[in-house]
Model the fold of this input.
Amino acid sequence: MEYIVYRDLYKTMTFESKNGKRFKYEIFKSSDASKLLTSVSLLDEFLPGLKAWVVIEPALTLPLEHHHPEYATEECVKHFRENYFSE
Done:
């Protein structure tokens, strides 16, 4: 079993689906900078005027191509288009 600490926020990205739902991708680097993990949240309105980010995918692992974390942005865009854009 491998235990990796994810503690450094690398980047935050927000997207909007066709129906106006807002999604947030928070990309974290592992403590040894060998892996990236993304948390996906949805902006939900619980009561009129009261909105909060609700985590819908807490641990999405991203491939880290040749130790270039900038590819994480492309992976998040791809994931959003394939999974949430049509919502």
In short: The first strand starts at residue 6 and ends at 16. The two ends are 36 Å apart (CA to CA).
